Amino acid sequence: MQKWIQRLANISAIGMFLILAMGALVTKADAGRGCGDEWPLCHGKFVPAHTISSFIEYSHRLVVGVVTLVLIATFYLVFRYVKRNDAKFYITMTVVMTLIQAAMGALAVIWPQSSLVLALHFGLSLLAFAFSLLLALVFTSFGQFLPQKRISSGFKTLVWGTTIYSYIVVYLGAYVRHTTSTGGCTGWPLCNGEVIPELKGATGIVFTHRIAALLLFLCILALYLQARRHYQGSDKLWFGSRWALITVSLQVISGAVVTWSMGNETAYLFTGMIHAMIVACMFGFLCYLCVLTLNDRKA
């Protein structure tokens, strides 16, 4: 039974990752209204007409439905056969976040909402993926969340502060997409050919996100340097901080590629999905470090 639970946990994490990526595609392709103002039907049908926008939106809905069924099965088996309280917490939070984002998605179709609320939809998807990833890790060698070395309070503060700040940066990125402000800054690293552009409208929104992303990179770089200096002998802390730096570096690069590809619609959609997927991985590694700091208190 343990192997079945592990497989379902892995499928859940993969499914949540796919939902997050497809949600980013829905936003980038402006397909959120691809099924009109109907839910769960799409233009009055279970199988909609084969337009691009309806196909993207309906595929996203279908994947959410299938993954939700997998989560329910995983939830039952974890509470029935797994004794670890952290596993029960992770699957509970995954299910809760998935249900909330599904409800928000349905409401967004029926009653159009502000960009501030729509951006939160991606944030909830990110949390759902992070919890599902932690659940999957429970059944691996990384799932024994006790670090090999005591962690200083300063490092713990840096980990948690960086993780919370990363969520804010991700929210700003989602807000950029939902306000269709991406074109506010043409070119990278300069914005409209300027180091500091006129901070109005879409340009101000995009430039704020860029500065926030730069500060996030510096925070994770500081996290990595501290881990290398003090915790290189701890495989788990070293693993999490190293991959957090790798993914935030890829995030910066992919953000630049998204800007450069704005003239090509296909490339723009593809790079936007890649950017969202890298963001999810980065946040997942930061959450893993947070769990290590929590369990250090019990060591």
UniProtKB/TrEMBL annotation:
One example GO MF annotation: metal ion binding
Subcellular location field: Membrane
Membrane topology of the entry: Multi-pass membrane protein
InterPro entries, per the entry: COX15/CtaA_fam, COX15/CtaA_HemeA_synthase
Keyword terms, alphabetized: Cell membrane, Disulfide bond, Heme biosynthesis, Iron, Membrane, Metal-binding, Oxidoreductase, Transmembrane, Transmembrane helix
GO cellular component, one term: membrane
Known pathway: Porphyrin-containing compound metabolism
Transmembrane segments: 7-26, 62-82, 89-111, 117-146, 158-176, 207-225, 237-262, 268-294
Gene Ontology biological-process annotations: heme A biosynthetic process
Domain of life: Bacteria
Record-linked PANTHER family: HEME A SYNTHASE
Name this polypeptide is given: Heme A synthase
Lineage start: Bacteria, Bacillati, Bacillota, Bacilli, Bacillales
